[in-house]
Specification:
By secondary structure, the chain is an alpha+beta fold. Helices cover about 55% and strands about 15% of the residues.
């Protein structure tokens, strides 16, 4: 599984889990909260309705109910509104009483009816008299209660026979009670109307009219005459006492602002903590390779070049770890090469300088005479140091891309002929012949001087290793789209383990060779760098005991120089065969 997929899977799992659990909990808890809030609202409305109804029963009027509603509003923190049942007349609105803005309220209302329900005995035969008596008694008690209320008293209703209220007045003065009892009786015409309405209930059921109406009453479907009679009498009772009794109202109570989010937040916290902890553990598992890379990179930057990262899996992070390890290997190898190069340079320069110093001290002490032999030796040591320094400068410029190249079309055959002519005297001195075998019209786009330097270094190396009486061959041939230059000797060859090291700085196959016979150890390195700057490749084929062939392959015809390397106008380095 790739790192991208692992991260995507981690994020997807966390997001889906968090979203699913949060949605489920939110919906469930919100539904429970709404249900609980609605239940609490209904219970509160029922309690408020009971308190308001009790006030109407005790006082026989809605006068002063505003104070009761205001007290309930202060106690509950809710807005209270009382309207008539048809909503046409507003009785009390605590928002108006408190001077608060009047806004629309919920349509949920609760009925309030302070009127008693007439409780008639079963088949007593006295229904007419009981109903008429109950109507008049209720009127008188209600008028009495209303009078006491207006006088500042606090009457209380006690339910008595037939469900009628009896007004008590323990704290009322006798004169107030007597005054309020006066004039509570109904007018004769009202009593006559009561008798008429009650009498209609005893007519034939099919011909009944609603009490208090002039038209036929809605026909009922009751088949029990006694039950029908009781129902009709109760309706007449409510109609007739409504003239003086408290009017039925409807109650509206403002809902609680919002719902309690504490359970939701608590549940969210309970769910969020495991999700966060799980995400942390998963992220640590996913990001652990990145942390290892970060630590390794920091230590590597602090100088610990041996720092490596363990490779696990095959995803992008594992590939990054492999790349980092490869980079670390290259940098460590380059660091080691740099140290070896500095040590090699010091070693290569120490001996010539020591020789020159010894000659000069001996000359100063008079141990040797300043003759031609001494000056020749000093000159040879100085030239050896100069060659090493010039080769180092050439190699440094080439590796830095600052070595200048004057490119043109070069005939490889002519270049090999010139190399043979230049190196023939040195080869003849060690009884080695130079031969050229080049095909016609082998052209490359190169710097003739630098290419001659590279081939010359190969020729010098071949002559150095060729046995006396053998021939070093300089050949050129076409191989595909390249021109290949070959320099072949019949020497002892190079062991396979050493072949990969022949192009390293200051490396010599024969450890016993001296600087006089072995060169500076930089010739093959310079030849490789010049070849690379020309867009070519250099290699070798060697068989121990049979000789070695070095090969330089260059593109045919004109080539474009590598970007940033081998540009004309750079520093000119001296040409030396090493």
């Amino acid at each position: 599984m790739t790192f991208r997929i692992r991260v995507f899977a981690l994020v997807a799992v966390v997001v889906l889990l968090a979203a699913g659990v949060s949605t489920y909990l939110t919906l469930t808890l919100a539904q429970n909260a709404v249900t609980s809030s609605a239940t609490a609202q209904q219970q509160l409305m029922r309690q408020i309705a009971e308190e308001v109804t009790r006030y109407g029963r005790d006082h026989g009027t809605w006068e002063g109910v505003a104070e009761v509603a205001a007290g309930i509003a202060r106690r509950t923190g809710r807005r209270i509104r009382l309207d008539t049942q048809d909503g046409a007349v507003g009785v009390v609105d605590t928002a108006v009483l408190a001077g608060e803005p009047v806004t629309p309220m919920t349509k949920l209302t609760f009925p309030i009816d302070a009127r008693p329900q007439l409780d008639l005995p079963q088949a007593s035969g006295q229904e007419r008299q009981i109903t008429l008596q109950a109507i008049e008694e209720y009127r008188q008690e209600i008028r009495f209660a209303a009078c006491l209320s207006r006088a500042g008293m606090q009457p209380q209703a006690v339910t008595t026979h037939y469900g009628l209220p009896l007004i008590t007045h323990t704290m009322a003065p006798p004169d107030t009670v007597a005054e309020c009892r006066t004039g509570t009786a109904s007018q004769p015409r009202s009593i006559t109307r009561d008798q008429e309405e009650v009498g209609r209930c005893f007519d034939t059921p099919a011909e009944k009219t609603a009490p208090g109406s002039r038209s036929a009453a809605p026909r009922t479907l009751e088949t029990d005459p006694a039950q029908h009679l009781r129902t009709c009498l109760r309706e007449v009772f409510l109609t007739r006492i409504g003239i003086v009794g408290p009017e039925p109202l409807r109650l509206a109570v403002s809902s609680e602002d919002g719902i309690d989010t504490t359970p939701i937040m608590l549940a969210f916290s309970v769910v969020a903590v495991p999700i966060v902890l799980g995400s942390l553990l998963l992220s640590r598992h996913v990001l652990r390779p990145i942390q290892r890379l970060t630590v390794a990179t920091r230590r590597f930057g602090e100088g610990s070049l041996d720092q490596r990262v363990a490779v696990q899996g095959g995803d992008e992070l594992a590939q990054l770890a492999v790349t980092f390890n490869g980079m670390a290997d290259s940098l460590q190898h380059a660091e080691e090469q740099q140290r070896r190069m500095i040590a090699d340079i010091a070693h290569e320069l120490r001996t010539p300088l020591a020789n020159v110093r010894a000659y000069l001290e001996a000359l100063e002490d008079g141990l040797v005479s300043a003759d031609e032999t001494l000056f020749r030796s000093l000159h040879e040591e100085t030239m050896l140091q100069q060659r090493i320094i010039d080769d180092l400068q050439t190699l440094a410029l080439a590796e830095a891309g600052a070595l200048a190249y004057d490119r043109s079309t070069v005939d490889v055959g002519e270049l090999l002929d010139s190399c043979r002519a230049a190196h023939q005297p040195a080869a003849a001195a060690v009884a080695v012949e130079l031969a050229v075998a080049a095909g016609p019209a082998l052209l490359v786009h190169a710097d003739a001087g630098r290419l001659r330097q590279a081939v010359g270094n190969l020729v010098t190396n071949a002559v150095r290793h060729a046995p006396a009486g053998t021939t070093v061959t300089l050949a050129a041939l076409r191989v595909g789209h390249d021109v290949q230059i070959q320099v072949t000797d019949r020497g002892c060859g190079i062991p396979p383990d050493d072949q990969r090291r022949v192009f390293q700085r200051f490396w010599r196959a024969d450890r016993a060779r001296t600087r006089a016979t072995g060169g500076s150890g930089l010739g093959l390195t310079i030849a490789r760098q010049i070849t690379v700057d020309h867009g070519g490749t250099i290699g070798l084929v060697s068989e121990p005991g049979h000789g070695t062939t070095f090969m330089i392959s260059l593109p045919v015809g004109e080539t474009t120089p590598a970007a940033g390397r081998g540009l004309s106008g750079g520093r000119k380095a001296p040409l030396h065969d090493v």
